[in-house]
Amino acid sequence: MKKMRIVFFAFCLCFCLRPVFAAPEGTSWFEGLEASGFVFKGNSVFSDPTLLEVAAPWKGRKISPGMLEDLRQALTRYYTDRGHINSGALIAGVNPENGTVSVTLVEGKIVKTTVAGNKRLKERYILSRLNSAIGKKTPFNIHALNQRLQLIKRDPRIKGIHAAVSPGLIPGEAKVDVKVSEATPWKASMKFNNHGSPAVGSSKGEISLGHRNVTGWGDALGVSFKRTKGFNGYSVRYSVPLTRRETTLSLSYGKSAVVLVSTPFEELDIESRAEIMGAVLRRPLHRSMSRETAMGAGLKKINAKTYILGQPFSFVSHPGDSEFDVTVLSFFHEFVETSLTSVLLLKSDLRFGLDWLGSTVHDDSAVNYADSRYVSWLGKLQWTRNFRFLKSALFVKARAQLSNDSLMPVGKFSAGGAATVRGYREGLISGDNGTLVSAEWRIPLFELKIPGISQRKGDGRLELCPFFDYAKAWNCSRPDPAMKEILSVGAGLRWMISEKTGARIYWGKGLKKFEPTSEFNNLQDNGVHFEAVSRIF
């Protein structure tokens, strides 16, 4: 578990030992003079009206060395109580004619920052993310530094970070020594489940490999391989942060080959090949420990080909669509809010299918064939709430898709299976539009540890997970699917064997009748969905 500490020396004690912000000497000439007002110089953090409110109790008092020292300490304390621990006030002088007190505010700065412990991460990568809190032009605030360190702590490339703040040689100056402990940049995982489509083989294996810090600037490279009896595919993803505020560019490429293996289609040698390329630019608008908002844009190009008995063949509405291309431009907005007991995630994604890069376009005016030209919106909601009751947690998710036109198969809303509506086979229903609602209540039962694997506190936890799932799909201009609505109830078991290893199995009872032929019958059609996951590192 990552640890973060902030260590700083007692600046107040330092100021007491050194007469930094002392009242002026030789003040006998203003005996009997009353303070009529205050003039502030050097303040940028707090406005004059704010400081005047702090100094108000001393207005009208007789000026004396003790009175000026009390005023100085009050102004200094106003800064330090709000995190500006190396800032303070200096009594610059008193006007003997009208009793105006001049106060100079020395707003502390960080003049030097050192980084130690980083091996692969560039020093500039770390300093740039601390810059808003320790910049030489920014008055130093210990609370701002704490917040920045907490955000950096979330970086998967960093295992731990702490900072020591100490006074500089000149009053108001300080230096920061940052020590970093890097996490392993490599990651690898394996999955085995029955989440594949029965048409291509439901039993699926997946291997993922990745590196979180290829060049030292926080760029990540990942590759994954997926395979079932009739599906073979891989994908590659590269992402690089472009700014210190985590504006990120992600590039992806994927390729897959599919052969229908279920009876009676196996003898027809039905094949499909797909190639997907994409780019996404994501920019955070606001980041704090409790809230993050971001927006971005993406461009995706999809090419798909279908064959039967080795010959091109169209399985969509237009007879010439044995090969089709779709180009999609999307704009999205994300919102995440976190508290001690809950997490809320909202995402809105507006997609435009465009006649770009050789996309498939039909000019048939008599029939509304699906092609690359469309507008659709996809909205997502996820909400998690922890309860004291039974130490349980509620997980709710919802999804909706709305389209103005008929969509190609790659853009359709689909539901059914482990990630959507349990108790039914994968992708049982699909349409141009759709809605999904799912709720799951996770209740800890007991710990079932495996010696040598379950070593940490909480390892081996077994949870009971009753759930409810619902989805509906419908089309725009074409007839709706024969089965357009499914819902189920059921329960599952989740076993967190260790931090890196886990397994889950769910059984769902479909409340909308679906009877597959005996040739199609498998665990999914019996309502069973399982998965085992292991992170190697």
From TrEMBL:
<feature type="domain" description="POTRA">
    <location>
        <begin position="33"/>
        <end position="108"/>
    </location>
</feature>
<dbReference type="GO" id="GO:0098046">
    <property type="term" value="C:type V protein secretion system complex"/>
</dbReference>
<dbReference type="GO" id="GO:0046819">
    <property type="term" value="P:protein secretion by the type V secretion system"/>
</dbReference>
<protein>
    <recommendedName>
        <fullName>POTRA domain-containing protein</fullName>
    </recommendedName>
</protein>
<dbReference type="InterPro" id="IPR005565">
    <property type="entry name" value="Hemolysn_activator_HlyB_C"/>
</dbReference>
<keyword id="KW-0998">Cell outer membrane</keyword>
<keyword id="KW-0812">Transmembrane</keyword>
<dbReference type="GO" id="GO:0009279">
    <property type="term" value="C:cell outer membrane"/>
</dbReference>
<keyword id="KW-0813">Transport</keyword>
<keyword id="KW-0472">Membrane</keyword>
<dbReference type="InterPro" id="IPR034746">
    <property type="entry name" value="POTRA"/>
</dbReference>
<dbReference type="Pfam" id="PF08479">
    <property type="entry name" value="POTRA_2"/>
</dbReference>
<dbReference type="InterPro" id="IPR051544">
    <property type="entry name" value="TPS_OM_transporter"/>
</dbReference>
<keyword id="KW-0732">Signal</keyword>
<dbReference type="Pfam" id="PF03865">
    <property type="entry name" value="ShlB"/>
</dbReference>
<keyword id="KW-1134">Transmembrane beta strand</keyword>
<dbReference type="GO" id="GO:0008320">
    <property type="term" value="F:protein transmembrane transporter activity"/>
</dbReference>
<feature type="signal peptide">
    <location>
        <begin position="1"/>
        <end position="22"/>
    </location>
</feature>
<keyword id="KW-0653">Protein transport</keyword>
<comment type="similarity">
    <text>Belongs to the TPS (TC 1.B.20) family.</text>
</comment>
<dbReference type="InterPro" id="IPR013686">
    <property type="entry name" value="Polypept-transport_assoc_ShlB"/>
</dbReference>
